[in-house]
Amino acid sequence: MARRLFALQEVLSGHILYRTVPFCGKNEKFAAEPAVARAMPFASWAEIFCALRIVDTQAESVMPTSLFSKNAALRRLLDRHLPALAREETLAPEGITERIAAGSMILLGNPGHKQLAPGLVGQPARVKVNANIGTSPLCNNPAAEERKLAAALAAGADAVMDLSIAGDLDAIRVSLLAACPKPLGTVPMYAVGQKILDAGHEIAEMRPDDLFAEIEKQAGQGVDFMTVHCGLSRRGAQMAVDAKRVMGVVSRGGSMLARWMLENNRENPLLEYFDRLIDICLPYNVTLSLGDGLRPGAGADAGDAAQWEEVINLGNLAAYARERGVQCMIEGPGHVPLHLVRGQIQGIKRLTGNAPLYVLGPLCCDSAPGYDHIAGAIGGAVGVEAGVDFLCYLTPAEHLTLPDEDDVRAGVMASRVAAHVGEISLSRPGALAREAAMNAARRALDWQGMAKAALDPARVCSRRKEHEKEDVCAMCGKFCAVKMLQGTGRRHE
Ligand code: SF4
Known about the structure:
single chain; alpha/beta; TIM Barrel; 3 domains; eight-stranded parallel barrel; two-stranded antiparallel ribbon; 10 strands; 8% strand; globular; disordered N terminus; binds iron/sulfur cluster
């Protein structure tokens, strides 16, 4: 029964009916039935149960029952944190376990990361937001990165990636891990590339053993998830070059690997020796963030053959990683015009077996530098409605410079707004409850209530400060429309 209900939710939240319903962790009672009918007037029950049977059969054949038996670190982590995670996400514990086993949800957490609160990624868990920080050769200040970490966490980031490429990367990573109670991710290829380029060598001189050694070292340090561009094949790199893309390859890690493959005429070591990567990550429960090295870097490049070639590879790798007991998520685009976002998300989800999808944006226009956090949030909201599980922020500094603390704050908030907007459209109970609380407070001119319900309470308080003694706000003053009609209903009674 549980599997059948799980399948129902998968159908409803997947690609077949395009809409989902609030389950509130009470799906065992089929409490959602009336909501289903309301949410999807175009879908007959015959269609729903027909789809249910299809997914049920698929779930039977593809669910890797071995995940927990093969990944002892994950099993222990889940045993310890499941009750709290279920409460936090308002989901049934068995629903969480089943989704993790099936690979549509992941639990980010390396037992070596001290003081970590592990996090779930995969709808219907709350959509999560990641903030990228890290040094660059032109802005190398580790203390500033620690302040940016604090700013990201204070703004509500659910995860942070250290993308440092300058300075003592081990020291930076270790200190950020110690200061970060949320899952922390990295791109190990950066550290390998830094050593090679700083020594004045060519990336083509990289030895695959050095890459695997770096991954193993970072796993031992406690890194929770790693971007690894395993799906970028020699063939895909050549396709991207031959396609004469407007922007070519825009992934830093992807471009290094593509160069290595094309110069050496060899296959990507992360693809060729994928088992070696699995063997390293398994004991640490390091989640593979299967990178999109060929993601479009311009709207005009979205959806070309090279991009989909990589996605197909990622789907196969994700299925294999699950069979071996290693969790994974899929990284997604990238620059995608708004009208293509839904199709991209649904296509990627379908080809990767509904693995959690982690997207950069999607950035739905190319011409808004300085405002890319807004363009990214628009794409992100549409993406969440289409099935995205994890948003990687963009900041106002994107394409221009390294973000500062203010950029980090603005980026996290923009992505949190996008996640919330998408969740409202999916009728997620938490998002709807927040909306209801805000509207109740607004009706009552209850400014504390408004701050409490807001995504950014501190911003509400600071903008209100100048007129905080007034019961109305400075927008209308004594012309306040809310106040104008207060009490009129009672007089008529
Ligand atoms: S003053 Fe105007 S903007 Fe402010 S609460 Fe009243 S109606 Fe709303």
